[in-house]
Amino acid sequence: MRASLVVIPTFNEAESIGTILDGLKNLDVDVLVIDDGSPDGTADIVRMHKIEVIEREGKQGLGSAYRTGFSIGIQRGYTYIIEMDADGSHQIRDLETIMEWIGSADLLIGSRWVADGAILNWSKFRENLSKSANSYTNALLSLGVKDATSGFRIYTAELLKRMEISTIRSEGYCFQIEMTRRAITRGGSIAEVPITFVERVHGKSKMSFAIALEAVVRITAWGALRLIGR
To answer: Whose CA is closest to 27, among 104, 108, 103, 95?
Structure first.
């Protein structure tokens, strides 16, 4: 068994998952795909690449998929657990760069908003939405992390154990913020590594009004708890 496990949640990523898996074969990692019943045959493509896939019934959410994958990684004794998207927005070459930082912090975040980080092919609306979400998060929670919404990360298994991930409740992109907040409260050290985020070429973004609303409500509630010292 290798030291690092890459956990990839999927839902209708048949057009891109094969390319991601081919790239990961060149790295010293194991891969686990958590598929939420993709009707487009994503799971079949994963199996064709001889990669383990856990098929779940119905779309249960990003947070749920990561909690499942992280728990499996911990149970199997991996030292590092990596999360990345299946849509091609996270580049294999950037993962190689982030992996070079292993050992420097408990949580490594591939960041779009630090020096030398970049975004390709996003609309101004999406760019401003991401920047605003991170600004709002830091204004209320003072996390000190420039890209708390990034889903390109490497955790140590020891940090994940301390974080008690089974009690993380967020399901959408707010999951990344809640995980960042929990990592800090459990004494985890964090480093941000610049990446180039590339907008997906295939498929549709999973962003929705409900996902954005979940983030606003939860961040506001956490900010209120912080003000009263809880």
So the answer is: 95
Half-sphere exposure in the Cβ direction for 8 (13 Å, CA): 29
Helix and strand numbers (H, E) in the chain are: 8, 9
What are the CA-CA distances from residue 143 to residues 14, 85, 166, 179, 222 (Å)?
36, 23, 22, 11, 12
Number of domains the chain is built from = 1
- Phi and psi at residue 162, to the nearest 5°: -70, -25
d(CA 42, CA 46): 6
Residues sharing a CB contact under 8 Å with residue 106, sequence separation 6 or more, in sequence order: 155, 156, 158, 159, 183, 188, 189, 190
CATH number of domain containing 78: 3.90.550.10
- Whether the predicted model's global pTM rises above the 0.70 cut: yes
Which residues touch 199 (CB under 8 Å, ≥6 apart)? Answer: 89, 119, 120, 121, 122, 126
d(C-alpha 103, C-alpha 203), whole Å: 35
Range of the domain at 38: 4-227
- 10-residue averages of pLDDT along the chain (230 residues): 95 96 97 97 98 94 96 98 96 98 98 96 86 91 95 98 96 91 97 93 58 75 75
- Which of 160, 184, 152, 171 has its CA nearest to residue 218? 171
Total residues belonging to the chain? 230
Dihedral sign of CA atoms 131, 133, 139, 142 in order = negative
